[in-house]
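Example (one chain per record):
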Amino acid sequence: MGVSRYHWQYRDILSGFQYLSSYKNEKDSYTFWSFLYAVFIGDKRDKKDKSKIYQGSIKQLMTKTEYTYLQDGFSGVLYDVGNGDDRLLIVIQGLKGLELPERYAQLFADKGFSTLAMSYYGGKGQKKGMRAIPLEQFQTACDKMKEYGYKRIGIYGNSKGAGIALLAASVVRDISLVIAASSFGHIMQGTGKPDEDECKAMVSYKGQDFPYVEKGKLMSDFIKRCMHERKIRLLYFFDEWDRKGTEENEIPIERINGDILLLTSTHDESVPAKRDAELLVKRLQRNNFEHNYRHINSETGSHNLGYFPVNNIMLPREQKYPEECHLAREATLEIILKTLGKWEVTRDEFYENG
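Predicted structure:
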């Protein structure tokens, strides 16, 4: 199996670079980020039986219930710890499938927090790529969870999932706590074929488009940046795209109906998350945001602040300072758990994770 897996990876790497060299417009069905994620992770959706019961490390029975997009309007697995707590955490990631979100759901459930692992694209009935992803699926999920007695609903995401978490919370009033790690700050143009959806942004809500940053000559800008810097970094791709953004296509973070925690790293080599977090904080200040918010930046971590990192092989900092990056993840997890315990973002009793 291992030989077969790496055979496919090398084949996909070759195909991917052939794609990158021929990138012209949004008619291309593949994207730079989906290529990178697909090569090293793929879509390994973990299909489990509904309502499977297992023993967690907190020594109490937990139930797992699976939901499908075609039948329930959202794709996810609920880890119900059965402790009577009215808090529920939704966990999403940047990759397709439920395997990674379920790892986080298991982690938080073991800590006593009922968790809904969700996958918002790539599954049966869902958008295949990052174009016009319907944010109403998060409202549908919240409505279902409220039927079970959950009253306080939060959402946590890493990387691309962090940006989607912020966007989902901007339209779903039931979400009262958002934790976003290594997020982007602007709404980008969606990928895929133009005829896939009338909406062109990466997300939509009830059929309505969002203001977005156009790709323009993105690959040309990326190549020029690499030549100027004399090295290739994924950050340059997204940094060049992000710099085209304006206030109009920033994530409307001020619409969120709850507390916000933004987690970033100075040494993020994938997206300009620190700069975008500072930009979003200024947006909250301009709009006199009524809830609590905080931006905590790590001076030692990488883009992968999530406890279960992916694609570390692609991040130079992870290769050069693996122990420091691991400790940053440990510190970040502690901050997240403290936030979940209080169910609010406070300025006391926290510490910088760098």
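Caption: The chain has one domain: 48-342.
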